[in-house]
Every structure is written in C-alpha cells, then in structure tokens.
Design a protein that fits this description.
By secondary structure, the chain is mainly alpha-helical. Helices cover 59% and strands 0% of the residues. Among the domains are: 60 residues, no CATH class; 85 residues.
Length: 345
C-alpha cells in the first residue's frame, strides 16, 4: 500500500544542534524522485473504498490526504487487450514460419550428397525457404570467421563494451522503490570500484566510434578490391532496417510485460513502460525520439515545473518572515520544504 498526496509542504523548525534534524535535512532531496511506501496485505474481498478508509484513518493525525492509485487482485488468467493479442498472434505466426523453415533446412541437409555439401550453389527459392532456419542462423552467429583481418581485436573491444553497457543498465535503470536500505547505494556511488558503473554511459561513445570507423574501413576495402565506391545511402538504410526490426521486437516485448508477471509492484512499473512504448513507438522507429518529445511527456514535464515553481514561491515568502524572526533571536533554525508523493497501490 502506498499513501498519496501530490503536494505536501513540510517546514521543520529546530535548533541547529539537533542531530536528528540534520540527518533528515541531508536526505530530504531523495523525496523528489522517491515515494514513501507502507506495505500491508488485505483480503481480496476488500474494495477500493475500504482500503482508502483504512489508510485515511491511519494517517489522520498527520493530516495527510489519501487516494487509492491502484487496487489489484492477483488473477490466474491474465486478460490480453487488443494490442497484446495482435502481438501474440504475430509471434505465433513467426514461430511457426521459423519451425517450418528449420525443418526444411534439416531435410535438405540430410538429403544433400556428401560431395556437394560445399560446392552446391543454392537457388533463390531454396535460400528463401531456409532464410528463417534457426540452424542456419545459429551457425551464422557463432561462426569463427572474421572479415576484419588485422583489426579482429575490435570484436573483443565491442564485446567488452557491450558487457560494460549492460552492467550499467542493470544498476542504473531500475526502479529503486523495489529495494530497502537505499542509503547503502549512496555509499556505493562514492566507492572507486563502482565508478565504472556510474560512468557506463560512456560505453555509448565507444560503440558509436566503432560503428563509424568500421563503416569507413569496409568502404575503403571494397573500393580497393572492386574499384567501385560503396554507396553510403544503401549501407545506412541497411543498418537502419536492422535497427528498426530490433526496435519493433523490443517494443512488442515491452507491451507484453504487464501480463507476463505479477506482484505488488510489477504492474506499477511495467504498465508505464508498456504505455510509453505503445504511445511513442513511432518516435523510436523513425529515430527522432531524441529530437521530439511525446505530447503526454511534454504535459507532465510542464506540470511538474509549475508545481516546483509554486513551491519555491511560497518558500521564499515564508523565508523572508523567518529571517526577521531569526534576526530578533539568537536561535538558528533549519527549514525544509519538500514535495512528497504517497500512493496506495
């Protein structure tokens, strides 16, 4: 259960030598991106109004307003919406095609004569029927040959960079509300051995450099061997097409995430990811997601800015009054203004 109130202004006034308030003041900025959570278990027969009434009675003395943001009962059979049904159907069709293509490929390999295994050239129809073969794809992925020659070490550099990239995503791109004792993470950020994780965003620069370098290298090699220049537009379109296919696959998986699992915080996290992919998939496919902002994201950002500006305006007004009081006494006061999000899930 999470308690919810969008705007909560807390002003603490105490002596400067208060150790408790000093520690609280150092940690208050975390409430700008974390929410306070209180977990309880209730019977499945409880309705939304029942949970809201119970939560309101618990925080009545603290003058909090309570709103049920999400009320969920675990169900054995997940219900698919229209988009998810279409994705599951498409995945089933592609799986059937892959299995059929693999079967055809295995039969052709078994019927092929031993002396023609290497020299036989495949027709266009034969290559088309086996293009979805999982056996052929796995052999192509794991083949030891390389076309880089003296630059084969770049394969190792690319692999290490991808591992670095994934390591950073595992630690940095998670929902920190899942964990307890998050203050330990503050200590991790100061540790020298953890700097590789914090600076894992630099791995993107390495991958971009390698792609650009290899693009130019292969272009020069083709020019020397064939005497013709590679058309950059076709190479770019080829890479873009491969990226679009991978992007669409990742989008489909993201839309299916809410029904794949369950749990107290599963729906809260995965539904936002699925909704974002559902609304903004076209921005990713067109590679303009870094240029244009989706309408709902732009609205949410504007609302947050207005809220913070209102908070700051009230804070400054109170601060002028507080300074007058401080000038008339010898006491030093600590004032904190925060915005907390408390929700019931």
């Amino acid at each position: 259960m999470q308690l919810y109130r969008e705007r909560v202004f807390i002003v603490l006034t105490t002596h400067a030598n208060s150790q408790v308030t000093g520690e609280i003041a150092e940690k208050m900025h975390f409430f700008y991106f974390l929410v306070y959570r209180y977990g309880v278990c209730v019977p499945s027969t409880c309705q939304r109004e029942d949970v809201e009434t119970i939560a309101a009675s618990l925080v009545k003395s603290a003058e909090f307003e309570v709103k049920v943001a999400n009320c969920e009962v675990k169900e054995d059979n997940a219900k698919l919406n229209g988009d998810q049904t279409a994705i599951v159907t498409l995945v089933c069709i592609l799986t059937a095609i892959a299995l059929a293509s693999t079967a055809v490929d295995l039969v052709k390999r078994a019927m092929r004569k031993p002396e023609k295994k290497e020299a036989e050239a495949e027709s266009l129809l034969s290559r088309f029927t086996t293009s979805f073969s999982m056996v052929r794809s796995l052999r192509s992925v794991f083949r030891p040959e390389t076309s880089l020659g003296p630059l084969s070490a770049l394969h190792g550099l690319r692999s290490l960079t991808l591992l670095w990239f994934m390591l950073g995503h595992i630690f940095l791109f998670v929902n920190y509300q899942f964990f307890r004792n998050l203050m330990i993470a503050v200590g991790f950020a100061k540790d020298f051995s953890f700097q590789m994780v914090i600076n894992s965003t630099l791995a993107t620069d390495t991958l971009i450099f390698l792609n650009g370098f290899l693009f130019g290298y292969h272009g020069l090699v083709d020019h020397e061997s064939t005497g013709r220049r590679r058309q950059p537009i076709f190479s770019v379109l080829h890479k873009a097409f491969r990226a679009v296919v991978a992007m669409l696959l990742a989008t489909m998986v993201a839309i299916l995430l809410p029904v794949i699992g369950s749990g107290p915080m599963w729906k809260e996290t995965m539904e936002s990811v699925a909704q974002n992919c559902h609304d903004n998939w076209w921005l990713n496919v067109l590679f303009v997601n870094n240029i244009f902002v989706a309408p709902h994201e732009r609205t949410r950002e504007g609302r947050v800015r207005v809220r913070l500006a209102t908070c700051a305006e009230k804070d400054f007004t109170k601060e002028s009054t507080e300074r007058k009081r401080e000038n008339s006494t010898n006491e030093v006061h600590v004032r904190l203004t925060i915005i907390r999000q408390l929700e019931i899930a």
